[in-house]
Structures are given as C-alpha cells and as structure tokens.
Specification:
By secondary structure, the protein is of the alpha+beta class. The chain contains 20 helices and 31 strands. The longest helix has 24 residues, at about 235-260.
C-alpha cells in the first residue's frame, strides 16, 4: 500500500487542499425534512449532491466527534482489573485448582451429548493453543508449558505495508495465562514489557498518514487496542497508549458501522481483518466497565456477522465483491470468526450459521491452525435450531428475505425468494468508494438459481496487470450500465499505460488509498477526491415484492463533477430493481439522461455460457469467439440445471450485443465510441482459479445513440430446468402522457413513472391486468386511478409505491397525479 505522497504521484494530481470541517457538519446535520421536501417535489432532472450527501446514514459511531476530527480526552469506560478481558468473562475469579470451570464443563458435556467431535487443543504447540489447553485442562504441567511458549514466542513487528504483526497472538495467550498461579509477577511484567514495546510501534504507525481505513489501518488498530486492553500497568504512559488505541479502534468501528461488510472483498476481510477485529471488539465488551459505546460495538459485530449469512449463495459460497480470493468458498477461517462473534453477541442466527458451515464443509470449516479454538469459541447453548444439512433453510427462519448492509454508504443488498438451496438469490450494490481493492460497480447485480446465471465477471491475481486495471475493477466487468463518451480520458495514474475508455464509472482510487479516518472519508464525498458513487433513494420489501431505487449519477462523470475537466457525460442515471416474488421475476428499469445524444448507452449482463439469440450478425471473430449483433429482444441463458430468460421490453429499437469466447471474454472498448468495436481483449493477468465465476460471455443491450434520454426496461425470469415452462405473461404496455415505462407481468401492470411528471398518464393495452403497481412516486403522493367507469384514490407509501387491485378489467388505465402541497 502506497504512502499518501506516493499515491498522489500515482494519481497524477496535486495534494488536495484542506476542506472546511463546517461544510461537512452542515451536510451531516441537514434534517430529514429536506429529503422529504425533495421527494415531495419529485425527482429533479439533475441530481443534487447536497441532498444525496444527506442520504449518507447518520448512524456513524460517534459521528459528530469523529467527523470533526476531535481527539478523545477520556477513555470510554474503565479498564477492568481482572482477567480475562477479551472473552470468557466468567473465568474472572476462577480457581484453577478446582479443575475446569463449571461453565466449560457444561459446554464439553453438551458437545459429548450432541456427538460433536473436536480437536484437543493440547495436541498443538503454539502459544494460543497452549493457553486454550491449560484453560480446558488446568494442570501444572500445562500451565508451565503455556508460560514457556509465551517466552519462546517470536514477536514480528508490524510494517507500514503488507504485514500487521503477530503480537495479538501473545496478547490473547497472556489474557488467559494471568489466571495461572504459576505465572509469576516478574514473568508477567516481562511479557507485558514486550507487548508494550510492540504497542508503541502500532501507535506510531497509526498516528501517521499512510494506513488506509478499510485496509491496513483496520488491522493495525485492532491489534493495538487488543494489546492495550490486556496490559495491567497503571502508568500514565499506559493510560495514554490505551486512550490512543481506543480512539483508532473506534474509528475502525465507525467505518465498519458505515459499511457493515468489507469493501475490499470477502477474502481480504476474512483472511486479514475479521478475527482480530472480533477479538478487539470482545475486549471492548468484556474488558471495560461502563463503556458507553459497548452496545453499539455489539450491534456492529452482529450486523457484520449477518452480512456473512446474507452474502452466502445457495451453492455455499460468498458472492464476490471487490478484489476477491479463495476464501469465498467459506472454508477454513469463516467458522472460527462466526463462532466468536456469536459468543460475544449471543446471536442464535450466527450459531445456526456456524452449524450450517459444518454441514457444508465438515472438518474443513475450521482450518488446522484454528482447531484448537473450537471448544472455547463455539457456544453450543446458542444453537436452538436443528441444522442437519448444508442449507440455510433453518438458519434464515426469522430473518427478512431482503436486507441492505451499510445503508447510506456501502449499500450492498441481497434479495432471496426463500432460504432453500433452490432459491432465487439476487445481490446488488449502489454505494460509494472506500478502498483501492474496491471495484467501480454501482448498480451492479447478480442472480443465482441452481447455478450462477448473471455473474460478476471479475477475477483477481495480479494487482497491476491489464486484466485488473482495464477490465476487472471496471464497470464493464459488472452487470451495470456503460455510457460511452468518445475520447474520454481514463488514466488516473502512471500504472494505466493505455487509455481504455470503456464507458464505465470514474476510477477514484484504483491502485492506492490512504483514508486516514472517518473525517477524511466524509471530506471527500462530493468534493476533494470525489469518492461518491451510488446512493439508494428508496427501498421497500413486502410479501409479494422487493424494490430498490438507486441514483448512480455521481458514479459517472456528470454535470457536477467531471474528472476530465469537461461538462460531464450524464445529467442523471437511476436504476430500479423490482423483484416480483410470486412470479419469481426481476424487473430492472434504468433511466439515463446523457449530456449529448451520441453518448451511446449499454446495458450489461455477464454469463457463464453463451447467451442464445435466434439470429445475429458476426461483427468480429466468429459466432463462438467474437462479437455479434442481433435484433432479438428475448435472449436465453441455458445453464446445466437452470435457465434465465432475458426480455428487453424497452427500448424497442435497441440492438442486442453478444460478446465472448476465448479471445473476446475480456473485451473492452478503448476509444469511447461503442459502435466501431475496435477495442481490446484485456486478458493479461486474468485468473482461471475455481473460486471465481468464470464468465465466458456477456450480453448487452445497446441504445441507438440518437437521443439524450434512454430508458431500459429488462425482465429476468430464472427457472430450474424442470420448471422452465412456468413463464408468466410478459408484454410491454403503452404509456401515454409522460416518459413512463409500463409492462404487464402475469396479471399485474407495473408502471415505472418518469422523472418529468405530467398530470395524467394513460396505460393502454392493459386488459389482462387485475393488479396495478406504481413505483417511483413521491412519498405519500396521492393518485386517482380510473379503470372504465370506476375511479379509486390511493396514496403512495413512504417508499413512493402504490399497489392496488383494479376494480375491473379495461384496455386503458388512467392515472391522475395530484400535485403535492408544500408546507410553509
């Protein structure tokens, strides 16, 4: 990870000027009345950075002080005098001479009763395992060996880039070892001295500017706080170090509260951050008395734990986000982390998820280097439901089938038809940028049913190779939208040897980041480095549908900010996802207002297999390895066990583009034209590892390039092959009176209202409709609906949605929009 100075060289920019703190505070303190007023007046044609910045969620931990950069002058809580402080607080005051603690005896008895097999930690020789061994078998021999291992432990100090030290392991062992009567005061003082020396190294690095918040800073801060919490010296020096470490750790917790997931990717999280952060959170909860932020720390850990559940696909893998790696397979490290978080939060869903991981992977659910921890980390009393197969069916009982993590910031969402292995699973993201391992994927979604049907086509091995820089991290590799501007410059730093103008979103920190704290991140939203991207304006989940309205404008070069120094390429970009649960169908509506009519728009969908069209013209290569264009509006994606029917409802005059094969699967346009197909296949550095969804093809719907405003309305209907004949009716409906788009799906007419509202909208050819669903209205907006001779009045809910049964059938539905009254 580059220092800030180095990163500025890579970015080819001058160091940014300071930003007024008062400006940030004004943005943060804007009331919800402003948002309500904006919604009441409906969407503006141009997006408002001011209003969208208000959408950043106000839940941020200690947000006021942290955003203002105020240094804490007092420790939150009082350090407990007794150990252990990290976890197993019931051991405080325990007499080892009496044998294993009764609570642990009960735990071991439950394991035996349930026939749970686990490894005796005493078979391992490393320091943490020896501490666990002594707690579970508190003999003098085990105690002495534990102390010996602590003195034999070789401390490796943290480095600015790439290595975060190992002192946390010694701190973990020490916290338990203090309970051993044979661990003398002199010996304790020596171990503390070693740990304190390491703690000062962590603090020195954390006080610098080089570490990035959603990267190395998180690991360093967790290490520092964990060490500081187990030290017993009451010197002024220790109090200062504890206060400093807590301040840095709270900044990390504030970051985690904003995202509730990890923007770098799951593998970076679970391999390098998760467990040490959980241990540090445990120390906050168990090692401090009267800590005001304890309840919030617990909730942050619970929500982050639930992210793992929701991100798990029916094939027992985590859906990719950012620069991913092997551990999306959920083996080895996930279960130890989940067990620990379940224990400190007391969450039964996480306990059930742990058992699911065991059913899916057996002994591989705990890596050998962590098997010593099972008997201490796993709390069997939390397991209140029977999990006897690798399915989330019982894990998810009681959880919503729709959730968004990091709402207002990360905006990573999940929709499920149910929690079985045959479920339709949808993921989506519409958030901001946080780290150099994140991708430019606002508006991206995936769809899984029986197998991956709409996938993230990115892979990751080599950080600075063309495949990552020119394809994998970009929007072209996602199921999102391209807006192509001829000769757009996309070379954010010297690592980008060629200009690849593929039409995607702005690259804000592709090869380096140094987000120092929450204040720094907030100060670069809609100003400074412009890390803003997507926001969620509305969301709703009901029994029969799930809905999300995203504003993606800020992700692209727009009329408010253009990194090319021009007037932007878009005025407004929005995406709506509407999952119709009874029909098992996803409708996607996109509104794109480009600055110029010749800025071509493309709607993307990546697949493992070649999308099938009935007719097509080969533009480059051949039909099995090349680029083809078709007039077909319906495309089939036929997998091994499932099929996805893709229907382009609008635009009617769009072309269907099919790109893929060995020499075209990483194709990206280079000149921003989008029509000449003179781009390149960015294969150098691509990975064929099995943990990636190896997308071979992509489907694109391409606008005519003759108007500024285009709207895509696409239907995705997934089916297992045994049920592929189950296809609810689908046909476009004619909307007259404004730029709305409407479709009949089954017996439900669905209307996506336009950004420019008229007084009346007529929906024609709707004779088969028995229900009406209108999305995109203002909050609490009243509308009159006339069908034949009957007229009803309905009011939109807080998400701007009207759903109603129609009083009778008629070929035409009239919708009258009542003007909203503005309060004085």
């Amino acid at each position: 990870m580059a220092s800030k100075k180095k990163q500025r060289v890579l970015k080819g920019k001058q160091p940014r000027k300071g930003v007024s703190v008062s400006l940030i505070i004004v943005c943060l303190l804007t009331t919800f009345a402003v948002i309500a007023d904006q919604l009441a007046s409906h969407w503006p044609l141009e997006f408002s950075p001011k209003v969208l910045n208000d959408e950043v969620d106000q839940r941020s931990l200690l947000a006021g002080d942290l955003v203002q950069g105020k240094a804490a002058t007092k420790l939150d809580g009082q350090l407990k005098s007794q150990h252990p402080r990290i976890f197993l607080p019931f051991l405080a005051g325990w007499d080892p001479a009496a044998g294993v603690h009764p609570t642990l005896k009960t735990r071991l008895a439950i394991f035996k009763q349930r026939k749970v097999s686990s490894v005796n930690p005493c078979v391992y020789q490393h320091v943490m395992a020896r501490a666990a061994c002594w707690v579970l078998a508190p003999t003098t021999e085990n105690g002495n060996l534990m102390v010996k291992r602590m003195f034999d432990f070789y401390l490796k100090s943290p480095e600015e880039s790439g290595y975060y030290g190992n002192a946390w392991k010694l701190a973990f062992a020490y916290d338990l070892a203090v309970l051993y009567p044979g661990f003398s005061a002199e010996q304790q003082q020596e171990i503390q001295s070693r740990l304190k020396k390491e703690l000062k190294k962590y603090i020195r690095l954390l006080e610098g500017d080089d570490l990035s918040l959603w990267h190395g800073r998180a690991s360093m801060a967790a290490n520092a706080f964990l060490i500081a919490m187990i030290l017993d010296t009451n010197t002024d020096d220790h109090q200062t170090l504890l206060l400093q470490s807590q301040r840095h750790f709270l900044d990390v917790m504030a970051a985690l509260e904003l995202t509730e997931g990890w923007p770098e990717g799951y593998s970076y999280w679970i391999n390098n951050r998760a467990l040490v952060l959980a241990l540090a959170a445990g120390a906050y909860l168990n090692g401090l008395n009267d800590a005001k932020e304890a309840a919030r720390i617990k909730e942050i850990m619970r929500r982050t734990g639930h992210w793992h559940i929701y991100a798990t696909r029916p094939d027992h893998r985590i859906e990719h986000v950012g620069d991913e790696g092997a551990r999306v397979d959920l083996k080895d490290i996930t279960r130890p982390y989940i067990d620990f978080v379940a224990q400190i939060t007391g969450d039964p869903f996480l306990a059930a998820y742990s058992q699911y991981l065991f059913q899916a992977y057996g002994g591989s659910s705990y890596h050998d280097s962590y098997r010593w921890a099972f008997r201490l980390f796993n709390e069997p009393k939390l397991l209140t439901r029977f999990i006897d197969s690798p399915s989330l069916k019982h894990v998810g009982q009681g959880l919503p089938r729709f959730d968004i993590f990091g709402k207002g910031a990360f905006n990573l969402g999940y929709i499920r038809s149910d929690w079985t292995n045959n479920a339709t699973y949808i993921s989506f993201r519409a958030g901001h940028n946080f780290t150099h391992h994140g991708h430019y994927d606002a508006g991206h979604f995936t769809l899984f049913k029986g197998e991956p049907l709409a996938v993230n086509s990115s892979s990751y091995t080599l950080f600075d190779k063309p495949n990552r820089l020119n394809y994998a991290l970009r929007t072209v590799a996602k199921n999102s939208l391209l807006i192509l501007r001829p000769e757009e410059r996309v070379q954010p730093n010297r690592l980008f040897k060629e200009n690849i103008a593929a039409g995607g979103q702005r690259l804000t920190m592709p090869t380096g980041s140094a987000v120092r704290n929450i204040k720094d991140w907030y100060q670069n939203l809609y100003q400074g480095e412009h890390w803003e991207a997507g926001v969620i304006l509305q969301q709703e989940s009901q029994t029969d549908f799930d809905y999300v309205l995203m504003d993606l404008t800020a992700a692209y070069n727009n009329t408010h900010f253009d990194d090319n120094g021009k007037q932007g390429k878009v005025w407004r970009v929005t995406r709506e996802l509407l999952y119709l649960r009874p029909q098992d169908r996803l409708l996607i509506h996109d509104f794109i207002h480009a600055v110029k009519p010749n800025y071509r728009k493309k709607w993307l969908l990546h697949t493992l297999v070649k999308p099938e069209v009935s007719s097509g013209k080969v533009i480059k290569g051949n039909k099995n390895d090349g680029i083809m264009l078709s007039d077909d509006s319906q495309v089939l994606v036929k997998g091994k066990v499932a099929q996805l029917t893709v229907d382009r409802v609008f635009p009617i005059d769009a072309k269907t583009e099919v790109i893929g094969g060995p020499h075209y699967r990483f194709y990206a346009d280079t000149d921003g034209d989008g029509a000449t197909y003179d781009g390149k296949n960015q294969a150098d550095g691509a990975s064929s590892k099995p943990w990636f969804d190896q997308a071979q093809w992509r489907l694109g719907f391409v606008s005519s390039g003759q108007q500024e405003v285009d709207q895509f309305l696409v239907s995705l209907t997934p089916r297992l092959k045994l049920k592929q004949s189950d296809y609810p009716a689908l046909k476009p409906l004619l909307a007259v009176g404004q730029q709305a788009r409407a479709v009949l799906s089954g017996d439900r007419a669905v209307v996506f209202v336009a950004h420019e509202m008229a007084d009346v909208l007529a929906i024609k050819q709707a004779g088969q409709a028995k229900q009406l669903l209108i999305v995109g209205l203002a909050m609490a907006q009243s509308v009159d609906i006339q069908v034949g001779s009957e007229k009803i009045t309905v009011m939109a809910n807080n998400a701007g949605i009207v759903t109603t049964k129609l009083p009778q059938s008629a070929e035409k539905i009239l919708i009258f929009f009542k003007k909203q009254r503005k309060s004085n």
